[in-house]
Amino acid sequence: MSAEGTATVAADATGTVPGRDAGQPLLQVRNVTQRYGDKVVLRNVDLDVFENEYVTVLGPSGSGKSVLLRLIAGFEDPTEGEIDISGRNVVGVPAHLRNVGLVFQNFALFPHLKVGQNIAYGLRNRAHDRLSAAEADVKVEEMLHLVGLEGLKDRRVNQISGGQRQRVALARTLATDPKIVLLDEPLGALDANLRASMKIELRKLQTRLGATFVHVTGNEEEALAMADRIIVLERGRIAQFDAPERVFARPETAQVAFALSRFNLVKGRVEGGSFVADGFSLCLAPDHQVLSGPATYCVGYDRVDVEEVDTSLAPGDCSIVCKHVSHEYSGATVTYLFELPDGQHFEAQYHLHHRKAKRLEEGAEYLLRWPMARAFVYPGVVE
Amino acid sequence: MSGQRGNWFTRHWQLIPGSAWMILFLIAPLIMMIYVSFWTQTSFDIKPDLTTKSWQTFFSQPVYYSALWNTIRVWLIVLVGTFVLGVPVAIFIGLFVRSNTVQTILLVLAVIPFWTSFLVRIVAWKPMLGQNGALNIILMKAHIISEPLSFLLYTEVGMIIGMIQIYLVFVVGPVTFMLSRIDPNVIEAARDLGAGTGRIFKDILLPLSRPGLVTGAIFVSVLVLGEFATPASLSGRKVNLLGNVIVTQVGSLKWAFASVAGVVLTVVIALVIVGLLRITDLRKEV
Fold first, then answer.
1. What digits encode the pLDDT tens for the residues B122-162?
2. What's the sign of the alpha-carbon dihedral B225, B229, B235, B241?
């Protein structure tokens, strides 16, 4: 039931993304359900992706995000529902006739072919529009230049580094000018430095080529940083589908907030208009007070201020007094860890460009406060 | 000088057991065989007086040189037969069966006939192929034929059927192994880039399974070229292979002549292996 609810929200959201012509979507997934035996991997998934859009699909492993890609690529057909590309239903159309490019997580390069031959493979072997060797060669050089691998054309694919292999995989897919480029955790196999630079490069490539990218990832930072819109998958359902700022500003469900890993999620229940847990209560904005029963209280790490216990509160602030446990310094930010009266964890993150770091005493009590409007309550308890 | 020799010895002494083994059991017998092939053979005796008489006999008498052509012909037919039957089986087990357990079970099933003795497997074909054998009974009961086929047993056909069955597993095994090692994503990537099934076979599966194909071909070739038992049993001694010539000649103590046939057979096998290895460098691939 709730899937239909979120689907409507998603459909409404597509029309209101700034700077988008709400024309015919390039890719439409309509009410797709995928089952393997009794196991439901995708449930009533509905989504529209427009031309020239960069969409990330965020979800933990087992959320069905890779299956969604395989369905769009054409390696599997959905148990129920329809997938339209450029307005045409492609269910039943084999992968090699869909003109959708998938960049595999493990790159899946052809181990017996050289870099140039890998990139030329699609151009030389596709079912229609096959290029001659000379034509393909021109395109290969162009692609090598595009991904910054000039001069590596005659290397074997086992003689190049992981980052270079990633680029070959990308170039191989982009060479065939696919309508939609699907990326399955493309940065997962790279080390941190490479990941950061590939993140920028992927985005640049997409803008430059004017292609439509659908990028699957388990990393919230990647999802937020790269996307025009984020799809958050939660156990085979779309939990939220919106622009990253909006997903971040207002997670649709506790699971979405959890997936973004930037929110305190406190377990408790709503009773008589306030949120209570074992030994403490937290204040609620009026529109959240209608709930009752088990609930999750959610506030962003970076919304929380740490003050001395006797600090007076501004109107509209929520607060709690609790014990400081430790802190984590990461260069640009510092995160203070606290323990709520019932033992649950609570974090406050300071971006050092905006706020000065505090010197806190471990084991001492502090007052934490945040604007009431920035806190959300979701029915049910996460995990 | 002596210091250098000591160095050489400490660096290379590990080569000694292997080299000794190869010299004792491969190089020396080969040289001996070539040497004996030039000895003088009389009806009851053999003398180390060098002559080319045995060689002349081998290449002048049709009964002998035709054994060479028979060997090559039968080898080619059996090789093609094992590939035509074995490769599809390997493709099925290696590519289409996704579960490792099922793959292993199917491979073991393919190998099980191999657990019985070689001779039993050959002899077991007799009640299958004979005039009143199982195959004829089935075909007649199914009204496909009205009279029993007589060309199945004690003919070249019967011998080839037997050999293909016996050596099939040597193709299925290595080819299945190579195919099952191919990353399924690589095949999907080829399809994703627009390649149809034929292209994927030609450009992806064939090159990536080539070491398995060559290994299988080498196994089958070496075994078939040296065959003597299957032709003796299933062809009713109608087909004479080089192996049979050697067995007969050794049996009648014609050592020089047996050596000639032995040298010819060794050369043929060596040429076939070298030829097959030219298709792929196994050391580089595996």
1. 889 999 998 888 999 999 999 888 888 888 889 999 999 99
2. positive
pLDDT of B111 reads: 86
Q: Give residue A191's pLDDT.
A: 82
Residues of A in contact with B195 (CB under 8 A): 96, 121-122, 125-127
Let me know if residue B166 belongs to a domain.
Answer: yes
pLDDT band at A16 (very low <50, low <70, confident <90, very high): very low
- Least CB-CB distance to A121: which of B183, B193, B207? B193
The pairing of strands A317-329 and A293-300 is unpaired
Domain contains B55: no
Within-domain flag for B230:
yes
Whether A104 and B196 lie within 8 Å, measured CB to CB: no
Contact criterion met (CB < 8 Å) for A75 and B183: no
**Residues of chain B with confidence (pLDDT) below 70:** 1-6, 281-286
Instruction: Determine the Cα–Cα distance for residues B277 and B281; give it in Å rounded to an integer.
Output: 6
Q: Is residue B120 part of a domain?
A: yes
Alpha-carbon span B233 to B227, nearest angstrom: 11
Domains of chain A: 2-249 (3.40.50.300), 265-379 (2.40.50.140)
Which token pair is B33?
Answer: 């065989």
Residue A369 C-alpha, separation from nearest chain B C-alpha, in angstroms: 51
